[in-house]
Amino acid sequence: VLETLRKAQKANPNATPLIHSDRGSQYTSKDYYRLTTQYQMTGSMSRVGKCIDNAPIESFFGHFKTECYDLKKYKTFEELVSDI
Description:
Blueprint: H1 2-11, E1 18-21, H2 30-38, E2 42-45, H3 55-67, H4 77-83
Parallel strand pairs: 1-2
């Protein structure tokens, strides 16, 4: 997870994204918090016992995978990015 954040920051150094995650240990760690703070990334996390907080993003990705990703075979990463 931390390496992914580093790659994202390197690829988009001026971005200040909102990052939504579940409550997994990697997302609640001190290292994760320090890195997202350093990179000015805003964390968004479901509340304890409130899985409905995650419903909109789960719905989006569920539809995306069904209607787009699962229907095609991408030859390159760039084709996928273009489709998104």
